[in-house]
């Protein structure tokens, strides 16, 4: 009995950190601003066959409609109600997506905006995605319903009701983030309304949540909400499964609030990951890839089993949030592929791949004045994600997750899952290599000269197909071939002017 209690205690402790993925899948993709009908198709036609574990979807609940004169992407971070009704689709479409994705083993993680409602200057009326009435000035959201009692106006002590000082934890958590009406999460009524919304989604079959603006909520208040959540839907998950939780906390150091305060609730976004990796791969501040030997905790990041990691996210790819200029995105495709490749090959953290749309960037004094532009659309209606004959996406969707190098590194991560980080090699500069047990090996050349060297791969003898320059197809290889000898050693040469100056081989790319 004691033993059983101990076992279930361990199970419970691990619970909210566990992404509830299908066995052998290791990476999620954020399909930013996609419509539910397109995600359902993508799960079936691409994500499941390629081994993606899950999808982070944009907030599904009703939001304010901002016409100024065009609709910004960020209107979805201004809730009006918890009805499933947005530019991405209605509740029927959401249900159909969750069902079809789960049926092919791809999980859905919801971006939950529960810290606040719309901006204080949001006016009143029915300019919302489902037409629900609201009055921001009176704090009136009858479709939930919330009223003046449910907000933190009385608690916030800053002179203007906003957050001006990130050195003051109370201000960060009790005041309005960029003017967004801050919910009073210490109230059981508010906690219950939020939990009802999340339980509605759990009932539909989602596997977990990104908690938006978690830094702006007290960890204990989040805990109280999580304690009200149901177990996952047993149609797809083992009985007793808990929702996966990852909290958006930006902690680059030097502020009042640190990531570790949130570990008890679930995983936390590690923003140092993309900021530092971008700096290294850009070779800024004297950084070199050889310094990545102790990447992870050794670089001052949180424990691996608490971290949700990514190279860029929907904020910092356009100058919102944190991270700054070092962040790599699809706009710097060559360096970006190396960074994502490094992330997916390295054992640190649970990984999230970004999938974006293109917009007209317009830098004025170093700031992109078009950082607000919403998804590809016709008069506000989000455009379909069309698929070109060469498998890339049309209609303005970038689909980084379909780039061969990125898609094949997701497969690499699945193949090396659970294997140790080993056989590190570097040239003291920007040529590095490492393996994962006897299942995979990767080599980078980010120097301004060629790499030509023989390395211990740890892999069994044989000829392997490099999954960066090509694919293994019908037993052949459309890219570079690497032959590993009986001693596990192989010769690599990578020109510094190669289209993609890195090579990756793994157990399933063996010919
Ligand atoms: C929009 C308008 C606003 C308007 C508001 C209300 O843009 O002008 O006042 O509506 O009408 C998104 C957009 C916002 C948008 C909002 C609502 O990004 O522009 O406001 O929807 O429509 C902070 C939060 C973090 C947040 C991030 C954007 O901590 O939670 O700001 N991210 C999430 C979402 C995001 C969303 C929201 C939250 C709101 O991912 O998409 O906003 O739901 C410091 C702090 C960070 C802080 C940043 C930015 O970072 O540490 O916590 O993030 O400042 O304010 C260095 C430092 C680093 C610092 C950084 C930037 O890198 O090391 O610590 O500089 O200064």
Task: Tell me briefly what this model is.
This protein is of the alpha/beta class. The chain has nine helices and 29 strands.
Tell me the name of the CATH class of the domain at 26-249 and 256-269: Alpha Beta
The class by helix and strand makeup works out as alpha/beta
Classify the helix fraction into a percent range. Answer: 10-25%
Give the bound compounds. Answer: acarbose derived hexasaccharide
Under the CATH scheme, which architecture of the domain at 26-249 and 256-269 would be assigned? Alpha-Beta Barrel
* Strands ordered across the widest β-sheet: 1-2-6-11-12-13-14-15
Helix segment tally: 9
Q: Report the C-alpha radius of gyration, rounded.
A: 23 Å
Distance between the terminal alpha carbons, to the nearest Å? 51 Å
Could you give the count of β-strands?
29
CATH topology grouping of the domain at 26-249 and 256-269? TIM Barrel
Mean pLDDT across residues: 96
CATH superfamily heading of the domain at 26-249 and 256-269: Glycosidases
Quick one: biggest sheet?
Answer: 8 strands, parallel, barrel
Poorly predicted parts: 1-13
**Which percent range describes the beta-strand content?**
15-25%
Broad shape: globular
